[in-house]
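Q: Sequence in, structure out?
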Amino acid sequence: MAVPKMSQLRPGVGVNMILKADQRSGKLTTGQISEILTRGDHPRGIKVRLSNGQVGRVQSLSASSDQQAITQIMPYVQASSDENYEQSPSHPGGRKFTLQEDYRQDPTPHESTSLADYIRAPSSSKRKHPSSSSTPVKDTTQAILEKNFPDLDSALIAAILADHENVEDARGVLSLLS
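A: Exactly. Output:
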């Protein structure tokens, strides 16, 4: 018999599993998944933690797992039709969550929303040194040096210009390299 695949399992699904202590006898334990512990499919079964805390490998899906999952979900769906629902602390794990509206049931699609709505324009106040006049001069100087030394990479010329404040010193270093 083939064990269930990872795609078939999720928290709340009823399963039959073998506990570590019961591996020799093959005794099956039934329960509902609270947490999946294995990252992918496994030939001996995916390791899970049940809602009662027991850990073992899933051998098959419980026959009533679908009915149990529907029964458990229905009160949440009915209670949260137009309001947020907070899970009761008696639920295993005591996690809190809120149900939100399903975007697929929204009659009007949000056509006005685009990626451009989430992009912020860069602020100019983040600059520490207002060097707007020095950048074009260096760019022009770099362009001249690139024409004078065509065998050298432009990134190398830019790095040498950054290291030497005097253009003549940079020109001397570049002439040694070419």
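Residues 73-88 have pLDDT under 50 and may be disordered.
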